[in-house]
Design brief:
Layout (H helix, E strand, L loop, with lengths): L11 H7 L3 H17 L11 H10 L10 E5 L7 H7 L4 E6 L2 H14 L4 E5 L2 H4 L6 E7 L4 H8 L3 E11 L3 H14 L2 E9 L8 E8 L5 H20 L1
Parallel strand pairs: 1-2, 1-4, 2-3, 4-5
Antiparallel strand pairs: 5-7, 6-7
Helix pairs in contact: 3-4, 7-8
Length: 238
Amino acid sequence: MTEAAEPPAAPESARTVFGERLPDAMRYAELLAETGVRRGLIGPREVPRLWERHLLNCAVLGEVVPEGVMVCDVGSGAGLPGIPLALVRPDLRITLLEPLLRRTNFLHEVVELLGLDHVTVVRGRAEEVLGTLPPVHVVTARAVAPLDRLAGWGVPLLKPYGEMLALKGDTAEEEVAGARAALAKLGAERVSVIHVGEDVVEPAATVVRVEVGESPGGVRFAAKRAKAARTGRTRRRR
């Protein structure tokens, strides 16, 4: 069993970002450093940089998420970026989508402990819940998969004219260049690399923004969604 470590003190920038929810962010940092490490959700080497690399890096994503929308955090893992985003943006309705039971158990515990009533935890893979989860305005993801594969999972979950926001690193521009053909087939109309949190984290968080048109996921996924909707209506009539 991996030994838990003491989380670092919250930097002053955390007070600016989390405001009155800073105590909850500090409790979440403790849970990641203790329970998260013991259960293998994060590595012990990540504990010293929990704030800059993880909590703040994810929370600043709130700078570019529209007000009052539905968000699905695909492959949420230990709740990054979904939990920090939920702490700074109580106006959002967030679904944490994660296939592994030990991770969803942890997410349920965090959501209950922090009183995040606007957050729902769903166990499953993106391709499995298509047609059963309501389409969302925004899909978020961090360290889940290369961009082309991630888009294949996340983009079909979007509403028409929604967007996927993927936290990426230094290779973001290269990933975008290599995935443009795949993204176009998935209905992406605009793809850009943006930077958020420039006054909070160093370096600023790099985000790939994929904006879709009328058919998120392309023709194949539109047909799949329509089939799922028909099946749902048939079941409700029975």
